[in-house]
Specification:
CATH superfamily of the largest domain: Bira Bifunctional Protein, Domain 2
Strand content: 15-25%
Distance between the termini: 58 Å
Structural class: alpha+beta
Number of helices: 12
CATH architecture of the largest domain: 2-Layer Sandwich
Order of helices and strands: HHHHEHEHEHEEHEEHEEEHEEEHEEEHEE
Largest sheet: 8 strands, mixed
Number of strands: 18
Radius of gyration: 27 Å
CATH topology of the largest domain: BirA Bifunctional Protein, domain 2
Length: 425
């Protein structure tokens, strides 16, 4: 969320950002509620001060005055309590509306209303050409007996799949490869649960914006997360960190879940858009400096580019426009992998800088070493690797004429030295 002081001083900037991000929030109403809260708190404080003054007068007062003081003190207490009750719904509404306030995007972020206005920054790698009839990933999985679609969907519902054999070995190899790379980059690796309470989703900003895409278990008051970021962000909730300990860098691994609400009939074939997947997520807490945030953004983006390059998958980097970047994002870049079977690029990574937007929600702060001043930290996140979607690009780009799939050199040590999997035996 934004600082209320900034909103008071810059309502027009906030309104413009809401429009650019295609969000709805009545800034004037928010400021009106803010003003009412301040006024009521002042009145309540006046009554409490009055009661305190009467309390100090009590020891030296005459018997008659003591009775009067008791009555006046009682009335001030009752009035203060009434003001406190009046504040409760206003503060609840204020908190809810503050949770909808957006981060002001970086000046160089493309302005636009949808993904159609995202900008391609660069393309890396050569798209493969085939001198044989190319197969898409579902055909390759069928011919190599690498997946169970029909029976699993009968058991578990639509958009579910079982991956087996050498393709599962490849999937696990890709996880280990990515984790090792991030360890080398200085990340602390951690496996985290997929389950969490509602508050963690509010902390990251997934709630209240994204309820429809999250699986809920009302009986247990729990939700299933679509990224380890949800849990990692709340690990330091309420903490005041040391500046010298920053940046804190986690590589979180977890099973992830997404309802894909609103995606009916879209990308239903194969592995593109499934309800359950696994992900290694980069998550960083850093100092509250734009230059530091930009440096960290490029760092985690480069890490993911290295993963793509060593997997030898052609990709492009996207600058997401304001209408496609969400409320909390200061800057966002997607990595999209080339998928020959779909004849298009598909998103595999999403890199985001959020400045102090999450830290304010989560109350993550740090104390400056020199001044001792306490500040809200900045946070960033990016996909390290998400499967099974990346398998689509992997096996389609590296397919051979006999239906086998070539294993790039960087991955061969993780596959027991294999140079290919599948194909006619």
């Amino acid at each position: 969320m934004l600082d209320i002081k900034f909103i008071r001083e810059n309502p027009d900037i906030v309104k413009k950002t809401l429009s650019e991000k295609c969000l709805t929030l009545d800034v004037d109403e928010l400021l009106s509620i803010d003003k009412k809260i301040i006024q009521i708190k002042q009145l309540m404080e006046a009554e409490l001060q009055k009661r305190n003054a009467l309390s100090k007068e009590m020891p030296k007062a005459s018997p008659e005055r003591k009775e009067e003081i008791k009555e006046l003190s009682k009335k001030s207490g009752q009035q203060a309590a009434a003001y406190a009750e009046e504040l409760k719904p206003l503060e609840e509404q204020f908190k809810s509306m503050m949770g909808m306030t957006p981060t002001i995007p970086a000046p160089d972020v493309p302005r636009g209303t949808s993904e159609e206005e995202n900008v391609v920054i660069r393309q890396v790698g050569e798209k493969p050409t085939f001198d044989f009839e190319m197969k898409d990933h579902v055909e390759l999985m069928d011919m190599n007996n690498w997946g169970e679609f029909k029976k699993i969907s009968q058991i578990c519902g639509s958009r579910t799949v079982g991956i087996k054999g050498e393709l599962l070995q490849l999937e696990m190899a890709l996880w280990q490869f990515t984790v090792n790379k991030l360890i080398e980059k200085g990340f602390t690796v951690m496996s985290v649960p997929s389950l969490s309470f509602e508050n963690a989703f509010y902390h990251t900003g997934h709630f209240p914006f994204d309820y429809d895409s999250v699986y809920s278990m009302p009986k247990d008051n729990l939700y299933l997360a679509g990224t380890a970021e949800v849990i990692l962000n709340s690990i330091h909730a309420g903490d005041i960190l040391k500046e010298s300990d920053l940046p804190i860098m986690y590589a979180g691994f977890s099973p992830c879940f997404r309802r894909e609400a609103g995606a009916a009939g879209k990308d239903t074939r194969g592995l593109i858009r499934v309800h359950q997947f696994s992900k290694v997520e980069q998550y960083i807490i850093c100092k509250a400096e734009i230059a530091e945030s930009d440096k960290m953004h490029q760092f985690i983006l480069q890490n993911s580019e290295e993963v793509m390059q060593e997997m030898e998958i052609p990709y492009q980097i996207i600058a997401n426009c304001t209408g496609d970047m969400g409320a909390g994002k200061y800057r966002m870049n997607d990595i999209e992998a080339w998928c020959p079977g779909q004849n298009q690029y598909r998103e595999t990574h999403s890199c985001s800088s959020l400045l102090d937007w999450q830290a304010r929600r989560t109350n993550i702060r740090y104390r400056e070493d020199e001044s001792g001043k306490v500040k809200f930290a900045y946070t960033l996140n990016n996909t390290g690797l998400a499967t099974p979607r990346v398998l689509v690009a992997f096996i389609e780009n590296h397919q051979q004429a006999d239906g086998s799939v070539r294993i790039p050199k960087a991955l061969q040590p993780y596959m027991g030295g294999k140079t290919k999997i599948g194909g006619k035996k």
